[in-house]
Design a protein that fits this description.
The complex is a heterodimer of chains A (about 200) and B (about 230).
Chain A: H1 2-8, H2 13-16, H3 22-41, H4 60-86, H5 99-125, H6 132-155, H7 164-191
Helix pairs in contact in A: 3-6, 4-5, 4-7, 6-7
Chain B: H1 5-30, H2 34-42, H3 69-74, E1 83-88, E2 95-101, E3 104-110, E4 115-123, E5 126-131, E6 134-140, E7 144-151, E8 154-163, E9 168-175, E10 181-188, E11 194-200, E12 203-206, E13 216-219, E14 222-225, E15 227-228
Antiparallel strand pairs in B: 1-2, 1-8, 2-3, 3-4, 4-5, 5-6, 6-7, 7-8, 9-10, 9-15, 10-11, 11-12, 13-14
The chains are: A mainly alpha (about 200), B alpha+beta (about 230).
């Protein structure tokens, strides 16, 4: 159906482009829902494997998670900066040829840094709603990975509306910073730097 | 080909997450986990105690003893007044609080994720405590307590300092609107850090920060009040 439309040009691309997002967004929603469901049904074990290192820190697991999450946040800033350059949003800066690679690889690194943190959250704690901060954190965690799946799947589609990737990317950035804000900031307040020095 | 990049990224994340999850499951299955294995192997001779009930707070804050509380600071070895020691285990990661009230003592061992309440007897500078998740032995004087805790299969040595309020050990056991049971413990350290776990129904979480002025904490939009074990003054 979609292919037919595209080849016959009966409908302008701008008008039907959003339909290309339906499947990616549906799958993304499914991912988010599945994470929330698993987090809600799985009884939090309270413990999980220590990811690595930081043995001397008073809260070693938290320190590892906060460090990974902060790393993901830094790469997320690179994401925003590189995207703004690529979209010509920064005056007098034209996108260098490597800006696409920078954007892709900073995104991959940010995502892969966030995965172990999320696995630990899901396994040791689960989806919780005992106060607003934790509810927000749980919701944003599900949203982040759902939106990430939707964006990755959307990227493979030709003819997306111009707003699609910026909106998905904006959701990802907002969710990631929200996740960091609802936990890591509290950790800094309690323990100071997560790094052992 | 480039179009498959995002799929590869997704797959890499999925593989990483799956691998970590499997490692978690295997790891937690191998380790003698808190509730059953350790309790069975190391505590066959321990006194049977309630599984879910934390140790009761030994003293009400408004008991007549309160008048003498200030002298307790100078003479913590005096059995008449509860004394509290808090601090980290050697190497950090887990905090310990011990409250001695006469010839009874309560200890709380917590790393912010897991917790153990231990109770037992104290006298002549020695104490020996047990609970469902472990045991603790220590010697103490007016300045510090030093000893060893075995909790969830881990042996941890500690030397912790005598403290005065508001530092110390706080506890709450309450039922909030909706019928959820709330159990919580907090160790308030001399630098103001709070390490604790709050259990609402079946869910245990790092405890939200306690207001030390009022002892209040908000759980699921309900304000509950924690008591300082051994009295507030």
């Amino acid at each position: 159906m979609t292919t037919e439309n595209r080849t016959t040009h009966t409908v302008p691309t701008e008008d039907r482009g959003w339909q290309l997002l339906l499947v990616p967004v549906a799958i993304g929603s499914l991912v988010a829902f599945t994470l929330g469901l698993y987090g809600g049904l799985h009884e939090g074990t309270g413990v999980a494997i220590n990811i690595a290192g930081f043995a001397d820190h008073p809260a070693p697991t938290g320190a590892v998670k906060v460090t990974l999450a902060t790393g993901a946040g830094v790469f997320a800033l690179v994401q925003i900066a590189s995207a703004m350059v690529m979209y010509g949003k920064i005056p007098n800066v034209s996108a260098p040829p490597w800006s696409g690679s920078l954007h892709r690889w900073s995104g991959r690194i940010a995502f892969l840094l966030a995965v172990p943190v999320a696995v630990h959250c899901l396994y040791a704690a689960g989806f919780k709603a005992y106060d607003t901060r934790i509810l927000l954190h749980s919701l944003l965690g599900c949203l982040f990975f759902g939106a990430f799946a939707a964006k990755m799947l959307g990227l493979r589609r030709e003819g997306l509306p111009a707003w699609a990737l910026p909106v998905l990317g904006g959701v990802l950035f907002t969710a990631l910073i929200g996740l960091w804000w609802t936990t890591a900031v509290r950790f800094f307040g309690t323990f100071g730097s997560p790094l052992p020095f | 080909m480039a179009r498959n990049g995002p799929l590869v990224t997704l797959a890499a994340g999925g593989v990483l997450a799956g691998g970590l999850l499997v490692a978690n499951v295997i790891n937690t299955a191998d380790e003698p986990d808190a509730d059953q294995a350790v309790a069975a192997s190391e505590q066959a001779d321990a006194e049977p105690t309630e599984t879910t009930e934390p140790a009761p707070a030994p003293a009400e804050t408004d008991e007549p003893e309160q008048a003498d509380a200030e002298t307790a600071e100078a003479q913590p070895a005096n059995n008449a007044d509860p004394v509290t020691y808090v601090g980290w285990v050697d190497g950090g990661g887990t905090s310990v609080a011990i409250v001695i009230n006469g010839d009874e003592a309560t200890a709380y061992v917590c790393d912010g994720i897991t917790e153990a309440w231990l109770t037992g007897t104290a006298g002549a500078g020695e104490l020996s405590l047990t609970g469902d998740d472990g045991e603790l032995t220590a010697s103490y004087n007016e300045n510090y307590a030093t000893g060893e805790a075995v909790v969830n299969g881990q042996i941890q040595r500690f030397t912790i300092d005598y403290v005065a309020p508001p530092e110390g050990l706080y506890q709450v056991a309450d039922t909030i609107v909706g019928g959820a049971e709330v159990d919580g413990g907090w160790i308030v350290l001399p630098d103001g850090r709070q390490i604790g776990v709050l259990t609402v129904g079946a869910d245990s979480q790092p405890a939200p920060e306690l207001d030390l002025e009022t002892g209040q904490v908000t759980v699921a939009d309900t304000t509950i009040t924690a008591d300082r074990v051994g009295g507030a003054e």
